[in-house]
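Hi there, hope your week has been kind to you so far. For a while now I've been wondering how a particular protein folds. I'm sending you its amino acid sequence along with the backbone structure tokens. Could you read through the record and tell me how the tokens relate to the sequence? Take your time with it, there's no hurry, and the full record follows here.
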Amino acid sequence: MPAPLPEPRRGSVRERRGRGPRGPAFLPGPLTPAGVPADRSRRERFDRIVGSVAAELEQRWGEHLGGAQFAVEETPWLPDDWASDVVPLAALAPATPTTPTRIVLFRRPLEHRADGPVDLAALVHAVLVEQIAELLGVPVEEIDPRYGDD
């Protein structure tokens, strides 16, 4: 009778000490100092999109924004008696004596409406333009003349 087969190995050799994935596909290197883009989480990718769009708009409108902060939340908090079928994509929180004005983008609803990374970046741009226009009390076309061109 032949000897029984050994149990199959579970997990990777690298994982046995809990250090996570290793190697050029995951770690920063000379060609990828910030790491490999595929290694970033959805939250990190979304934050990068918001950061780049906000920086572009802040460069042009920064002196009018009065130190407004940009923030990202996963989902909006909706009261139990919320009756609308529409979930907000962003919120504008006016300044108080202790906090500056905040423009908050809601990641999950925005990602849900986008068809891909390019569409998500365009949607984030459109939502930020709308929020800045509301904050400044000007038409969205004044913030970005390309708004609405599809």
